[in-house]
Amino acid sequence: MKILKSSRFWNTFISIILIILLAILLWQLYSLNVLPQNIQLPIVIILILAVFVVILVNIEFRYKPKIQIICLILSLLLAIAYGFGAYYLYRTDGTLSAITAIRNTNDNNISVIVMNDSDIHALEDLSGKKVGVLKNIDKGGTEKALEQIQKEMPVEFEQIELDSVPQEAIALYSGEVDAIILNEAYRTNVVELEDYADFSGRTRVIFQAHFKTDATNEALAVSDVTTKPYNILISGNDTYGDVGELSRSDVNMVVTVNPMTSTVLLTSIPRDAYVAVDCGDAYACAEGQLDKITHTGINGVTSTKRTVEKLLDIDINYTFRVNFSSVTSIVDSLGGIDIEVPEGQAVETFYADSTLEGVTEGWNHLNGERALSFARERYAYIDGDNQRVRNQQMVLKAIFDKATSPEIIVNYPSLLSALESAFDTTLSQDEITSFIKYQIQAMPGWKFETYQLSGEGSTLFCPSLGQAAFVTVLDQNTVALAHDKIMAVLDGKDADEITEPQTQANDEAAVYPENQAGYDFYDNEGAYSSGMDSYDESQWDSQNTYDSETDSGSVQDEYSGDDSHTNSEG
Q: Could you tell me which residues come within 8 angstroms of residue 531 by beta carbon, excluding any fewer than 6 positions away?
């Protein structure tokens, strides 16, 4: 009798908890709204019936001790299942809110950097020292950093103005200055110079100024992401940590989605593409000047978006911003991805991380770090950056395939944790949930098509560096063809059917040095080479070839004058 009373008490208690958890679970399902109505309604009925049956049996056989114990166990199991369900639905809602939260600011980090063996350990140690600052590049960031330094610790030091980012590194290494003030967004520009690859290892930060700048979040939203075609820009920053930190945009890919034809076109732009820059909302930027597209990331994703729109003559509806940490965490949370490496594209070790195992021909299972290194690899390939772009497209497709497979159920908790800080987007939460519902209900067999812009390598002045650097002068026929392929997919056609530009290539968009008149540039040793305004057309051998019958051509610009600088990458 005592056992019976005890089991009846606990059954009643658990039943009340179960009803509360059921109500929370149903509310979470309703609020999240990720399931199609024809799937959600049966699930809701089953959830309610399960509770109703357990409670009804419990009441009907309340004098049967064994049945009471069975009901208690069933109630506990249901309560645990409903509790976990409500929790993960809550987590899902929070994750979607986090990644769709509108960022109204960009994060800026400006560091005071010294050599490891320097006797400078704090701001007060700068007293009477020489500190290198950039003369024209990122003047706003330098001024804000100097203001914060004086607020933190009023100290007097001599400012040595330098003309380029590499010149700062040179001056610090040589002892010309005791410290430098450098925007962290430019750090990778230094470490990619062969002589300063050890920059991060040989230097340390004694102070870092943090400030935010206003950001414009533009979204040309479509009326329905499940029926209307649209373009998404994926901007991949070359940093770890906070995805909101400004840095170079090393991945620039336009994803064109047409839900009605289940077609996805990935159009990639080389990181070194030499393009006219739209500064977006940047406070210090050379508007309209020619620079590498990767440097637009330093200005913010709006700058990259508008620059790509002007380059390809398209509208971009949404943006996704990711970084190195995003790739590693998402791939690991999915349990790794599988990619098929074509014949002749095997890599023994990766340049980005020589400690990692490379890839072999055929299928390879990659964890986060190997997937990132594979997506960054270019030095192992004859085709260099073009093959890296293809690798990036393979990784993105593999992530999509894994995320839309049944395996996602097993990896769902870890994926939620990864997504919370993996990227930000201008897609709204309602648009994402609508797309999820469409994917669940329609289960479309997505067809992926790919294209990449290409061009000729050259060495031209980059305003963001303050010196000349290696760039890719885009073949304008590939630009025109990219535009036509994107428009074809938007119109419900097959991009692979567009093999020649339907519009005349803009040969006038070819790059000539007179576009950069008025700028000085420096060689890799920081020495002044010559003023860009002193160049004339006779110093350049510009060869523009175009075959009207095949509608194909190329743009090749070769400098034939005296030039003391060597190729650098920034």
A: 518, 519, 520
State CA 151 to chain mean position distance: 34
Per-residue model confidence as pLDDT tens digits over 238-291: 877 777 777 889 899 999 999 999 999 999 999 999 999 998 877 667 788 899
Q: At what angle do helices 37-60 and 429-442 cross, to 10 degrees?
A: 80
- Residue 241 token pair: 């940590």
Its pTM stands at: 0.74
Considering only CA atoms, give the Rg of the chain. 29
Taking the mean position of all CA atoms in its chain, how far away is CA 536? Answer: 39
Give the tokens for residue 393: 């497209």
CA 267/CA 310 separation, integer angstroms: 15
Instruction: Annotate 172-184 with DSSP letters as a single string.
Output: HHHTSSSEEEEEG
Cα 260 from Cα 256, distance rounded (Å) = 12
Residue 528 — pLDDT band, cuts 50, 70, 90? Answer: very low
Q: Which burial class, exposed, middle or buried, applies to 209 when counting CB atoms under 10 A from its CB (0-12, 13-18, 19+)? A: buried
* Of 79-83, 212-216, 380-384, 522-526, the least confident: 522-526
Query: What does DSSP say about strands 263-269 and 447-452: parallel, antiparallel, or unpaired?
Result: parallel
How far is 268 from 375, CA to CA, in rounded Å? 13
